[in-house]
Amino acid sequence: MRPARGPDAAVARWIRRRLAAAPPRAKSLVVTVWGDALAPHGSAVWLSGLIRLLAPLGLNERLVRTSVYRLAREGWLASRSEGRRSVYRLTPSGSRRFEDAYRRIYAPPSGRWDGSWELIFAPPGRLSSPDRRELERQLSWAGFGAPGAGLFVRPRLGARPGVPAIPEGSRLAKQLIVVSGREPSARNARPLRAWVPLCWDVDAVAREYRRFMARYAPVLRIFSSRRAADPEQCFVVRTLLIHDFRRVILHDPQLPEELLPRGWPAGNAYRLCGEFYRLTHRLAERHLSRTFAEEGQRLPSAARYFYRRFGGL
Fold first, then answer.
1. pTM for this entry
2. Rounded-to-integer distance, Cα 101 and Cα 164, Å
3. What CATH number does the domain containing 160 carry?
4. What are phi and psi of 297, to 5 degrees?
5. Model confidence at 47, in pLDDT bands (50, 70, 90)?
6. What domain range is 140 assigned to?
7. Is 307 contained in some domain?
8. Which residues of 221-260 are buried (b: 16+ CB within 10 A; e: fewer)?
9. Domains contained in the chain, number
10. Does the residue 165 lie in any domain?
């Protein structure tokens, strides 16, 4: 474990430039902090502690309060009062959403592909326009592409969950046809892999990964070259790293290697995140605990799964 020291001037400059160049949206950043830092501790947190925690990331009290209120209204969080303090915790629905989202961030890339596909048909005229837009949004997040109207496909990977975006038995699910299988061997049939450029803009995703690595490789070198680091800076940079990585992952359909162009950068981006996480997680966790302790709250130790992130810390 690296010892703590005062703030590093080079890291401080990097943080200022990062926040000035692309200020994170407040609610999205709260989601990142909750999923990355707070959820592993499995406890309710005081709003005052969250406000203090987010201040170095450029969010003032008003922005934090508004963001938390909106997340509660959307069903992510539930609140209660303890005297004059507001206490928030994840709802069961919020926990499930975090589990689906953050599995994609911290788990290694999906396993080998056996050549099979999952297909979802949404027959014309069966869905309203709002339902169709919601279906497209949810399936895009789950890695499905759309080669044509009402048809969604993705490679079937053994390590990937089923179709979590569509609750079984829901009104929307009842309007869909879900099948899986292999392609026919007929020579005159166009293989599904030929539709990859139409279904997914993999070139745009590759550019996002490369921009992400270009942004974070310099600050990783700074942390790697120092014998000591500042706990608050560890937490701030780790939060920004995961926040930006999460945004890239949102657009990545996570296709098997066989369907991707050569030199696909996702693996390198994942390894960069893991290296930074291993360098900083102890001091970042120290800052997290200290911040809430200053508000009079003691956070439980992180759950075991926290230490399995990125293949093991």
1. 0.88
2. 11
3. 3.30.70
4. -115, 135
5. very high
6. 113-198
7. no
8. ebbeeeeebbbbbbbbbbbbbbbbbbebbeebbbbbeebb
9. 1
10. yes
